[in-house]
């Protein structure tokens, strides 16, 4: 049992760390950080815009980190919003859309490299399995909290 736990935990941790290293490598030449990749991605997927709170929920980052990221993105001309207005809608600028297009292309290459030995069926099964594990662990965690154990 212990080996399964350690193998699972370390595999997920290594995968996360590698993804963060790739994001850092790809984005640092623009003077940005990995958090900016996910902000750009979600803003691109939501052309009508998002609030900082919505970005925080989607990226799983705390609101203070999102605020700092957005400030930097605004300074670089990638987003537009009113930082002094509560629930301001954040949108990508034209420069931000071009930047995000480049980042998404680089992300697609990374995903392709990571799954190059998978068939489409294996890749789909892998992602479905991760979703099931995620939901099962979320339910387990909620139950722990509910029962105070």
Please characterize this protein's 3D structure.
- Helix content is 72%, strand content 3%.
- Strands 1-2 form a two-stranded antiparallel ribbon.
- It has 149 residues and is an all-alpha fold.
- It has six helices and two strands.
- The relative contact order is 0.09.
- The model has no long low-confidence stretch (mean pLDDT 94).
- The protein has two domains: 2-114, Arc Repressor Mutant, subunit A; 117-149.
- It is globular, with a radius of gyration of 18 Å.
- The protein has helices at 2-27, 34-45, 52-59, 63-75, 94-114, 120-147; strands spanning 79-80, 91-92.
- It starts with a helix and ends with a helix.
Which terms summarize this structure?
149 residues, mainly alpha, Arc Repressor Mutant, subunit A, two-stranded antiparallel sheet, single chain
